[in-house]
Amino acid sequence: SDLTRKYNREDITIWGAFSHSTTTRCREYNSNILSFCSMPECGLYGLLLLVGLLPWIPIKADFYQVPIPNISNKSGFLSTFPTWFCHVITPIICNPLLLWHLERRGVRTGVWVMNHHAEFAAADWYGFNGIMTDYPSRLISYEQAKKRLSKLFSLRFT
DSSP assignment, residue 34? Predict the structure, then answer.
């Protein structure tokens, strides 16, 4: 936080953690730096949406960034969770209505880390407005192909 303040980078820095206590400490230490939801917050927001209470709950985070568990569980930390858990949690934390609601409330949504065209398509389908990837050129290629298809369909159906 001291370096972001010293070099005037607070407005382009995002911080947070999976741990709720760490994310809370980050927010308390420097509230000028944007933060993303902790994993417990992500699950809580999904459940609150399902029971209809989310519109009345304050959201402290500026970003909602999650993996898509039933896609991302093949490697990394999500591979430690049982497959059934990934299939149960995905519709809760990646719910298109949840993403729409968060964006309407000013929370930007993103998914990480997607590296293949099928994964990019899944992120699009859910409605995330940002995709983190290790392969930007693949994402650019996907976006270009999507744009070409969009033009093709608009020509055929107009």
Answer: E
Question: What is Dmax (Cα atoms) for the chain?
Answer: 56
List of residues 6+ apart from 18 with CB closer than 8 A: 38, 39
Question: What is the spatial distance between Cα 137 and Cα 27, in angstroms, rounded to a whole number?
Answer: 34
d(C-alpha 135, C-alpha 133), whole Å: 5
pLDDT digits (tens, 9 = 90+) for 13-28: 888 888 899 999 988 9
Give the phi and the psi of residue 116 in degrees, each rounded to 5.
-130, 155
Question: CA 63 to CA 14: how far, in whole Å?
Answer: 8
Angle between helix axes 96-104 and 117-126 (nearest 10 degrees) is 60
pTM: 0.84
| Strand blocks (E) in the chain | 14-15, 34-35, 63-66, 108-111
Closest CA to 110 of 91, 97, 126, 92: 126
Cβ(10)–Cβ(30) under 8 Å?
yes
